[in-house]
Amino acid sequence: MVYLSLIKVFLPTALAFFIGIGIAPLLTHWLYKNKMWKKRAGKIAPDGRETPIFNELHKNKEVNTPRMGGIVIWGSTLLTVLVFILINWLFPSDLSSKLNFFSRNQTWLPLFTLLVGALVGLVDDLLQVRATPEQAKTAGLSFGRRLAIVTILALIVSYWFYFKLGVTFINLPFVGELALGWLIIPLFVFTMIALFSSGVIDGLDGLSGGIMAIIFASYTVIAFFQNQIDLAAFCGAVTGGLLAFLWFNIPPARFYMSETGILGLTTALTVVAFLTESVATLPIIALPLVATVISVVIQLLSKKFRNGKKVFKVAPLHHHFEAIGWPAYKVVMRYWVIGIVFAIIGMIITLIGGPKL
Predict the structure, then answer these.
(1) What are the DSSP calls for 79-144, one per residue?
(2) In this structure, what DSSP letter does residue 176 have?
(3) Structural domain boundaries, residue 283
(4) Which helix (H) or strand (E) element contains residue 245?
(5) CB of 78 within 8 A of CB of 12?
(6) What is the pLDDT of residues 269-317, one digit of tens each?
(7) pLDDT tens per residue across span 231-268
(8) Are 355 and 175 in contact (CB under 8 A)?
(9) Rounded distance, CA 146 to CA 212, Å?
(10) Mean pLDDT of 123-132
(11) pTM tops 0.90, yes or no
């Protein structure tokens, strides 16, 4: 049974990787043929101001490199799920049924949020790449609109957790269950919004892909040891898709993940964290995402309450390191190292301190 469970997890991981490797060249050809990139470099900060340091650092990077590379990630994950469903339908057997990891109680919800988030992000990407150079800096869905959509999605999914699945508590490692009752809904909404805000980590070649691969690989292990094998297989498939994306995103990037990737991943990650009762350790497992959000908040508060003074040369934090002279590849590699170390620490705390071993 253990061997079958391992196969059930590793097979979707490998399949998603190879599917991603297969579809990436086709996607790349289409993206370059249709010039699916921003027509003018530049970005507006969350407070509505220009970001001159960032714009100077990336003036030659945002144009002529397509967006929407995240299609490789969620596309390979979706196709992997469909392959196992199709095999089970065409060749029904005990084995095909056990290998099919699409289940209502474990994988339906994270797959749903992954696809909804990805499609919202895809709309934003399309609006950005179709904008004229004059419209480029403010093109796409505004931060407020994306935040509103994510909040609505979070409310819908948290409703499902509370009323359908009966989730009313979180687990605190080495302490036990903390009953929250209906407060689980605002906690879920806050977590999804926080992870959505961390999407600004998608700013350097290979950074977001590597960090997300580390995080979802960690949850593959956590779900496996919690005996949530279907969920582990789903996280494994996402990890495989991320590794395929990363194959083409390491410097120089062939395409960027952009909103269709990062928005789908952050919303799905919220669901995975709640399903594995590891919300308390999520800030450890996903420390690079947390650092990204905190650096932006610190920068905004500093500029507001200190007469425009900044703590960092530019936020988020990875761009600060870039601005002080670190090569982009050094920033990315060190983020990966930190991500791996803290993901391991988070996994250990979750598994040893959790109730499901």
Answers:
(1) HHHHHHHHHHHHS--HHHHHH----TTTTHHHHHHHHHHHHHHHHHHHHHHTS-TTTGGG-SS-HH
(2) E
(3) 2-353
(4) helix 229-249
(5) no
(6) 999 999 999 999 999 999 999 999 999 999 999 988 888 889 988 889 9
(7) 999 999 999 999 999 999 988 889 999 999 999 999 99
(8) no
(9) 20
(10) 87
(11) yes
**pLDDT at position 357, please?**
47
Supply the pLDDT for residue 41: 66
Report yes or no: 8 and 233 within 8 Å, Cβ to Cβ. Answer: yes
Tokens 């097979």 correspond to: 11
Number of domains in the chain: 1
The answer to whether 69 and 164 are in contact (CB under 8 A) is no
SS3 content of the chain, % helix, strand, coil (to 5): 70, 5, 30
157: Cβ–Cβ under 8 A, 6 or more apart, which residues?
Answer: 109, 112, 113, 188, 192, 270, 271
Q: Cβ distance 264 to 118 under 8 Å?
A: yes
24 has a pLDDT exceeding 80: yes
- Share of residues in the chain with pLDDT > 70 (%): 90
Q: Are 196 and 150 in contact (CB under 8 A)?
A: yes
Q: Which of 114, 119, 83, 115 is nearest to 100 (CA)?
A: 83
For residues 39 and 45, the model is more confident at 39
Encode burial over 176-188: b for 16+ CB neighbours within 10 A, e otherwise. eeeebeeebbeeb
The overall longest dimension of the chain from CA atoms, in Å, is 68
pLDDT per position as a tens digit, 67-102: 999 999 999 999 999 999 999 999 999 999 999 999
Q: Exposed (0-12), middle (13-18) or buried (19+): which is 307, by Cβ within 10 Å?
A: exposed
Side chain identity, residue 76? S
